[in-house]
Every structure is written in C-alpha cells, then in structure tokens.
Specification:
GO terms for molecular function: DNA binding. The chain is mainly alpha-helical. The chain is 64% helix and 9% strand.
Amino acid sequence: MTVNPHEENYKQKKVISIGIVSELTGLSPRQIRYYEERKLVFPDRSKGIRKYSFADVEQLMRIADQREEGVSTYEIRQEMTKELRERMLKGQMNAHFRLRS
C-alpha cells in the first residue's frame, strides 16, 4: 500500500482548535489538556492557543479507547515510548542497510 505524501502532510498540520477536537473526539477540553500534561499528545501553541492535527485527533481517540478499557495514562505513555523507539531503530537499520519499508 502506497502512502500519499499529501495525505501524511495534511494529517500533521496543527490547525484544529481544542473546541473542534473536543467535538470530534467526545473528550472534554479538560481531558484533552490532561492528556497533554501527561505527554500523550503535543499540540502547537500560538499566542496561548492550542492547535492540534488530525494525527493528534486520531491519537486522542486511541487514548480514549484505551482509557475506557482501563489502561492507565502511564501505561499508554510507556507503549508510545516503546513504539517510537522501535520506529527509530527500524529507520536507523533501514538507513544503514539501505532498506525500504
């Protein structure tokens, strides 16, 4: 499956306000800010206003699902860290061996 570079680009743009994110995810602005405090989502800030991307919205929906299943924010953060390390290692190995995923 080929990923359209434009699709990834728009998903990463931080353009959505917390109010819209709240409507899209069903989470309250307070919950969203809490997940930011717990380092589970990383909005941009411009003049004190948080801006989120579509990727952030997807992440928040995954977090909400996991929390509903009883997973703690600490466990979610640990899993995110593990996944990031694995992606970084895979990227380093691909670069070293000139592999393509």
